[in-house]
Amino acid sequence: MSQFAAPTPLRRWQFRTAAGLFVGYSAYYLCRSNLAVAAPLLIREFGSRGLNKEVMGQIASLGVLCYAAGKVVNGVLGDLLGGKRIFLLGMVGAVVATVAFGLGQGVSVFFGAWALNRLIQAMGWAGLVKITANWFSYRSYGKIMGLLSLSYLVGDIVA
To answer: pLDDT tens digits for 27-81?
Structure first.
């Protein structure tokens, strides 16, 4: 008889869920961390249109404020819509906002797209926590949340 029993269907689904959340939240950070990487190139390309280090700092600061506001709003929204919906909606929204930023040709578009991006990105953690609470026992929260909280590093590395 084998020392290790075959994983139960629940365990397999928990693994799939954790893997999906890990990859998904890494993708959120890919959409979040790209501004710091692209900033020098953006300043070089759009400097003649008013984009400089100071304006990039203002764009980033507005993003932080929108992200903080989004944490509050999207936490409540997650309770209303559910974790899966808010996680996926936020992921699609972050991609759309990132593409809009990339297609932008001026400072006002950069401000708007980045503010929207960060507001929407706040859906990610709220959705992740809600999904995790539904799929995992409270006894394993520390382990699973510890693992999932590392996913942002992957997104940062890829960006």
So the answer is: 998 888 889 889 999 999 999 999 999 999 999 999 999 999 999 999 899 999 9
Give the integer Cα–Cα distance in Å for 7 and 30: 32
Separation CA 111–CA 115 (nearest Å): 6
Pairwise CA distance, residues 87 & 154, whole Å: 18
> Is 67 in contact with 119 (CB distance < 8 Å)?
yes
pLDDT by residue (tens digit) across 125-140? 999 999 999 999 989 8
Name the residue among 125, 18, 119 with its Cα closest to residue 65: 119
Residue 143 buriedness (CB in 10 A; 0-12 / 13-18 / 19+): exposed
Run of H or E residues at 33 = helix 9-46
Q: Would you call 7 helix, strand, or coil by DSSP?
A: coil
- Indicate the domain borders of the chain: 26-158
Provide CB contacts within 8 A for 127, sequence distance 6+: 78, 83, 84, 85, 86, 87, 88, 90
Residue 112: exposed, middle, or buried by beta-carbon count in 10 A (0-12, 13-18, 19+)? middle
Neighbours of 33 (CB within 10 A): 16
